Amino acid sequence: MSLKASQAWAHLQSHAYYMSQSHISDLFEGSQDRFSTFGFAQDALFLDLSKQRITDETLALLIQLANERNLTDWINDLYSGKHVNDSEDRPALHTALRTPRDHKLEVNGTEIIKEVHDNLDCMEAIVSKIHSGQWRGFTGHSINTVVNIGVGGSDLGPFMACKALSDFQPQEAANLKVHFVSSMDGSQLADLLSHLNPARTLFVISSKSFTTIDTLANANTAKEWLKQSSNVASEEVLISRHFIGVSASPEKAQEWGIPKSNQLAFWDWTGGRYSMWSTIGLPIALKLGMQGFKEVLDGAHAMDTHFKETPFEKNLPVLLAMTGIWNINFLNINAHAILPYDGRLSHIPAYLEQLEMESNGKSVTREGSNTDYSTCPILWGEVGTNAQHAFYQLLHQGTESVMCDFIVAAKRYHNTDNAELQHQHQLNLANCLAQSRILALGDSVIEGADDAPVYKRYKGNQPCTTILLDELTPTTFGQLIAMYEHKVFVQSVIWGINPFDQWGVELGKKVATSLLQALGPEAKEKQFDNSTQGLLQHITKRNA
Questions:
Q1: Domain 38-68+310-447+456-495 grouped into CATH 3.30.499.10
Q2: Dihedrals φ, ψ of 81, to 5°?
Q3: Among 221, 439, 515, 524, which residue's Cβ finds the most Cβ atoms within 10 Å?
């Protein structure tokens, strides 16, 4: 049955007509207990949906829609290793990557959980060797700098986690610096290399296929830099001392020169944007220690369990997802701002942009038909206090309806008596709560606002979700990211699309290859479109 033919969809459309006439401030006036009605907890994470334009009836209809779309069956298929990635004919087992060792999951005759932990054991041995100073460069000095070279999921997840959890760097990792390089133009890497000691630098090449042009271009630059900086005649020796490969294609990594002893593996069913839980998370383990990395996995697994076992009425990822469905498909809100009020979470907007838009930015269903409804919204975001001085003007007084996620921790400076730091966090919390309040309720919260000139008025009615962590720790961080992953999956089920492929990025890579030849010294005459041909000629003249 098509989505729009479902009974719940029809009821939601009728309900939306009524609710679209409502203001969120009116919903609060009509219910003195709204926060407890639409507040949901899982361990140290709290989800407040009370500032969404919803009622009990809205949630009941949304859950009916989830049931009509067989969400329970899809969740079971996801966890059991069914080929939910149908276009690539494979499972999507990122939940297995954070499942404890004592669990079992057999897929196609292979015990997946055992393989996962065997790989984690290999990663732990490497982490221990680097932290203990036993991994040595070409001069015999220990490694004190690690550069992760990747792109997309091989960069965004580890980069975000290392930034978010830097407070938890253990003593054994205190002197280890971890850097990230992803840009194709070489400027990022060139700037970094100018400050590094080649004898003490280790490069982690993270690529699922080990054929990604962006990543290998940077890897080759790093290799040439090491060659020129050392007197080591043997490239094989140099690579064995200064490169680790993390890939699902070990033969390709070995072709590049990385020996098996320097490789960490993962699986083709590990999507890039779901890969930081695997050995792609090596930089996280180097930054936090293996125990810290395992705490991140534990937090994600706790959310996995919650998602699989909790009734939809109390299930955080399901509620978050279905509220998004309501906003997108029934209130016609197609913009989504991610607003962390914590500088440590500064990279979460970029991470969620990839997670959601690469997963659900689709217009073709699993059956191959074009959708006649909206799917993934446009996501963007910034640390809240910066965003207040940037795009909040549009949120408050612009013409666009925008749904907003506010992410903040209740506690920040718990191990200090510094009153000024505590005051700063209180100021941060006050700004977070104030902005979500005004965005949802408008200037009705201010006495005398009715007398203000029209250009000073705040209309409100922008739906806001607040995600409140007791404290940002490795465990709660794992919970948070896993919650968003499952949210994306739920929405894909409702929309009937495959969230685990990304064919939309493939054509650009192929066309870039043909254009690369046209930019080379032996370029042949080739007819492109008029604009591209003109730009090529202009570039050629400027480089003559």
A1: no
A2: 90, 15
A3: 439
Q: How many CB atoms lie within 10 A of CB 188?
A: 16
Tokens for 7, please give them. 């009974």
**Residue 15 host element (H or E):** helix 7-19
Confidence at residue 414, expressed as pLDDT on a 0 to 100 scale: 66
Encoded tokens for 347:
């990279």
Contact 406, 466 (CB under 8 A): yes
Residues of the chain with pLDDT > 70, as a percent, come to 99
How confident is the model over 24-44, as pLDDT tens digits? 999 999 988 999 999 999 999
DSSP 383-433: -HHHHTTTTHHHHHHSS---EEEEEEEEES-TT---HHHHHHHHHHHHHHH
CA-based torsion, 189, 191, 197, 200: positive or negative: negative
Terminal Cα-to-Cα distance of the chain (whole angstroms): 61
Q: What is the pLDDT of residue 283?
A: 98
Can 38-68+310-447+456-495 and 101-286 be said to share one CATH topology? Answer: yes
Q: What mean pLDDT is predicted for residues 153-180?
A: 96
Return the bridge partners of 316, or none. Answer: none
List active site positions.
Answer: 358, 389, 509
pLDDT computed for residue 511 by the predictor: 86
pLDDT tens digits for range 441-468: 998 888 777 888 889 889 999 999 999 9
| Cα angle 173, 176, 182; round to 5 | 120
| pTM for this prediction | 0.96
User: Looking at the predicted structure, is the pLDDT value of residue 375 above 80?
Assistant: yes
Helix (H, G, I), strand (E, B) or coil at 4: helix
**Domain coordinates of the chain in residue numbers?**
38-68+310-447+456-495, 101-286, 504-542
Angstrom distances, CA of residue 254 to CA of 201, 247, 275? 20, 10, 21
Answer yes or no: are the C-beta atoms of 201 and 145 closer than 8 Å. yes
**What DSSP element (H or E) covers 317?**
helix 316-325
* % the chain with pLDDT above 90: 83
Compute the average pLDDT of residues 502-516.
85
pLDDT of residue 415: 67
What fold, for 101-286? Rossmann fold (3.40.50)
Q: Which residues contact 264 (CB under 8 A, 6 or more apart)?
A: 119, 122, 123, 126, 244, 245, 246, 247, 279, 282
